[in-house]
């Protein structure tokens, strides 16, 4: 797991303009602290899938989502995937914020970047495994993106036993705790021609965190 400073600065709102030296130093200092204390974990399962124009069926679970179906078009299998930085991240962010709100904001951005970095590394390992069979992974697609309902979290968490296996639970409002956690579907295809990025799958085009300059 490595710090991607560009991603941290993006979360902090530095888009199209350079960050000041103090913010960069603070981000690097806080990231070093987190990298020493965090023990991220992930869990995943691979399933066969059937995809139509508007639905995805995964081991008897029928998902109504045109965006997810479009993203998984051509896939015959998919992973359900979940990962977390653990309770240490949430606890440390609160401790930092209690002393300085500005540093707490940076700490939050650092952890947002670190969980994505960890997910990228775990997905790279899965991709290497699939490549041995001539297969390729699609980018992660998470509940809440586009029309992939947030309620799908319940099924993902039940199938992966997230609370038991990696210590991640769902709140009554379907948010994850610890907060710095991710759940997603990752398609497996027999071609490497996917051009999608996470943000291109999301219909929230005015999001401040959107990649590609909001295009």
Automatic annotation (TrEMBL):
It comes from the Bacteria. Residues 123-203 form the AdoMet activation domain. This is Vitamin B12 dependent methionine synthase activation subunit. It comes from Anaeromassilibacillus senegalensis. Transmembrane segments: none annotated. Pfam families: Met_synt_B12 (PF02965).
């Amino acid at each position: 797991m490595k710090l991607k400073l560009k991603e941290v600065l993006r979360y902090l709102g530095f888009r199209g303009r350079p960050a000041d030296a103090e913010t960069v130093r603070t981000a690097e200092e806080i990231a070093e602290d987190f990298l020493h204390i965090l023990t991220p974990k992930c869990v995943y399962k691979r399933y066969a899938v059937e995809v139509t124009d508007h639905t995805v069926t995964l081991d008897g679970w029928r998902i109504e989502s045109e965006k997810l179906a479009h993203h998984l078009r051509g896939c015959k299998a998919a992973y359900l995937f979940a990962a977390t930085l653990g309770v240490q991240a949430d606890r440390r962010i609160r401790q930092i914020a209690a002393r300085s709100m500005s540093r707490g904001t940076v700490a939050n951005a650092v952890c947002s970047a670190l969980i994505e970095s960890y997910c990228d590394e775990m997905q790279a390992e899965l991709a290497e495994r699939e490549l041995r069979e001539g297969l390729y992974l699609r980018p992660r697609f998470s509940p809440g993106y586009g029309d992939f309902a947030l309620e799908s979290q319940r099924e993902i968490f039940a199938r992966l036993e997230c609370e038991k296996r990696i210590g991640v639970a769902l709140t009554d409002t379907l948010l994850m705790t610890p907060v710095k956690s991710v759940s997603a579907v990752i398609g497996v295809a027999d071609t490497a021609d996917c051009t999608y990025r996470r943000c291109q799958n999301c219909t929230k085009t005015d999001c401040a965190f959107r990649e590609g300059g909001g295009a």
